[in-house]
Amino acid sequence: MKYYKVIILLVHLLFIYGSYSIKLNSIAISYSNEDQFFTSIVNDFNEYAKANKLDIELDIDVHSSNDTLNLSFEYRKLLKELFNNESSKYDIFFYDVTYTNLYISNFLELNNELPNEYFIWYSTGIGSETCVNNGKWIGFPININYRFLYTNMDLLNKHGQKMPETWDEMINTTKYILEKERDEGNTDLIGYNGFIPDYETNLSSVEEFVYSFRENEDSAFPDYHDNTASKALTKLKQIKDEISSSEIFRANDEETIKRLDSGKAIFLKFWDYPKVNSVYNKTILLGNKKGVSGTSIGGYNMSINKRIPQSHKESTIETFKYIASRKLQKKYLMENHSISGINNLYTDKEVCQIINCDLINSIQSFYHRYDEYYYGLYREMIYKYLYNNGSLEETLHVINGINTFSFVDMNSSDTSTSGYVIFIIVVSSITLIVLSLSLLCNYRLNMFFSFFSTTSWLSILFGNIVIMLSIYPEYNEITSLKCKFKYIILSCGVALNALPVFHVLLTKYATSNKCLEWIKKNKYSFFFIYYIIDLILYGVLLLIDFNVKEYISLTESNFKYCSMNNVIGHIVLCTLVFTKLLLYFGSTILLYLKWNDENSKMEIRLITSDIILNYILIIMLIIVYSLKYTDYKTPFLLNSILIILLALSNYLLLYCSKIVKIYKNKDKIEQMNIRYSLNVMRQSHCHSHSHSQSSSREHSGNVIINTNSFNGCAEPKGMMSKIIQYHYNAGNDTIIENANFSQVETMTSKSFTQPPNE
Questions:
Q1: What is the DSSP string of 168-219?
Q2: What are phi and psi of 319, to 5 degrees?
Q3: Are the beta carbons of 293 and 287 closer than 8 angstroms?
Q4: pLDDT of 266-316, one tens digit each?
Q5: Among 615, 590, 612, which residue's Cα sits nearest to residue 710?
Q6: What is the pLDDT averaged over residues 417-428?
Q7: CA 592: distance to chain centroid?
Q8: pLDDT tens for residues 147-163?
């Protein structure tokens, strides 16, 4: 009995396990309450799954309404919320093909998930335009829709008119029929609806009209700068004014469907619709020339949520394969006349017995990627032009400019002059700096460049070059990476320029401060630590995205500009500025201390002038970067001019001043070299002699030496008095208070005398 119960329990558990199925959830949008397309798909799959014992059940949440505008907005809002929350609630998404680019990053890449035959089927159709992102398939067009022209053949035949092949022919035919029908009292008849309602449809409806004005069937979409777009919009307004009206042009789907049912229109533009009055003949839309047409792509895509649980993935892919299969697509094409994304179905004899394959194959379509800002401004300008007598020139300028952004380009007529001038100045300046480096290699001129070492000069001069190179990211289109490198290059150049100046000034100041003494004695270690800190900051900056914002103008050129909205990014930028200003501030203090030093008077004055200019120019640069602009040329010119002045002021004051001195003393160089060599020898000897005497007297107690420095890092007492005392002490390293040793002081002072400034 016990075993019997166990067997029953096991059988029961096996039954439960065997009957368990994975439930998949999908979500779809339908613009008609009567559309049962998605419900049919789900029912067909569930029957297929049951027949093939797949243990998968598909459920669908269909959002449908005849209120197209609100439905579209609410569905996009829902999907955005789902994706932002990284929801795995739905496994499969059906969505309007227009909005693919809004969702594309949230879908599973299919290239390695499906058999190759699927990609062969869909790659020859519109799927390669609507479902491929960077070479990766993220879905398939499950149901396509196009706009067609519905022509009332009863009225054309009644009045002896032939089917028009161009827009001009349609205008003439419509005007003739309307006049005759109104003479007979038929005032409810309209000529042409235009189909530019108050929602997203109007964007693609106008664009397909412009597309129909291209030169030939293979021509690309006309540029709004071209005369083609001007002709198209002029013709569209002519159609509205002569054979239609603003009210008819703006009529919604329901109004158009009523006329498709009643036959009270000569021509109607609308989506593929199965239930139309028999008086209408469906053809492709017309064009400006015979054989040229144009329609935008509508319909639905199907994609898989990339965040689905791993336990659902295999079942979801199996479901996806069935719905996208050629077999099911053929079934819906034949039974429901649903246009498929598999092009070779329209060469299938069985299909073409039921479907007008010639009509589908003759469609000349284009795909419009939705952009909310573009749509809003496009709609505003088209409505202003069509319904409020807006200027055609302004309309074309704004539409073309919505996705056209100007930038500094030497090939552009707008900025070629300023771009070339700045480019030539920078290249010329860099060339001059590089050529002048040869002076450092001439040993006869060493005395003129003795204030800085050769490596310090190289760092200063190379820093000037790098500073000027920070202008080049301003050329051509602005990107997030260029925004980062603009600041990095400028910061690097300023560091290369300012660091050697600070260190050299520090070495000429006597101090017992351990921190400063270590910096004096470990030049390259100090440089290395400083640059490592900068490199870390540069690395963090590279990891942070700069926002590239767009400035749109109705009258001027649109442009992009850099904007940092990240808190960490602001901190990094402020830190980079602070570390450079810290060098300048330290140099300023040291210059004040050495201001009355007769031995280095000219150098101190030149470096002081340079640092003051640097302060002013860097503050002006910060202001220039902070201001808002209404054109792209002004910030480029201001930034370029300030950066060039920053680099050239350094070069002229620190380096070229030596070249001027060389030129003035070109006839005395040999004599000056001899005096310079003797002074170097005397300086070396006196350093040694004075050091030994000072040491012995210090230990014997016969002299009191007051070191003009800070007695450690943490002793601020009397700091200002010491700084002022040092400033007025003509820069000597020590103040010898015992008058008996004034002779030593005099000798030491003379021993540091440099060659005269002749």
A1: HHHHHHHHHHHHHHHHTT-TT-EEE-----SSTHHHHHHHHHHHTTSSSTTP
A2: -65, -45
A3: yes
A4: 999 999 988 899 999 999 999 999 999 999 999 999 999 999 999 999 999
A5: 590
A6: 87
A7: 46
A8: 999 999 999 999 999 99
Angle at 538 between CA 533 and CA 543, to 5 degrees: 130
How many whole angstroms separate alpha carbon 542 and alpha carbon 550?
A: 21
Q: What is the pLDDT of residues 458-500, one digit of tens each?
A: 989 999 999 999 998 888 888 888 888 899 999 999 999 889 8
Distances (CA, A) of 109 to 125, 131, 138, 303, 305: 19, 10, 5, 9, 10
Read off the tokens for 622.
Answer: 């910060």
Q: The whole model's pTM is what? A: 0.64
Residue ranges of the domains in the chain?
20-145+299-366, 147-296+372-402, 416-669
Closest CA to 723 of 530, 592, 586: 592
Q: What do you get for the CA distance between the two ends of the chain, in Å?
A: 123
* Fold of the CATH domain 147-296+372-402: D-Maltodextrin-Binding Protein; domain 2 (3.40.190)
Tell me the one-letter amino acid at 190: I
Q: What is the CB neighbour count within 10 angstroms for residue 116? A: 8
pLDDT in tens, 568-591: 888 999 999 898 888 888 888 888
Arch. (CATH architecture) of 20-145+299-366: 3-Layer(aba) Sandwich (3.40)
Instruction: Report the alpha-carbon distance of residue 244 to residue 605 in Å, rounded.
Output: 81
Q: Six-digit token pair at 197?
A: 């309602």
Region 416-669: CATH code: 1.20.1070
Residue linked to tokens 């006869």: 444
Beta-carbon contacts of 719 under 8 Å, excluding residues fewer than 6 positions away, are 710
Q: Is the pLDDT of residue 3 over 50?
A: yes
Q: Which helix (H) or strand (E) covers residue 27, if one does?
A: strand 22-30
Helices (H), 388-479: 392-402, 416-436, 454-469
CA angle 301, 130, 67 (to 5 degrees): 50
Angle at CA 125, nearest 5°, toward 123 and 129? 75
423-432 tens-digit pLDDT: 899 999 999 9
Identify the residue whose tokens are 């989506």.
271
* Those residues with Cβ within 8 angstroms of residue 381's Cβ, 6 or more apart along the chain or in another chain: 390, 394, 395, 398, 399
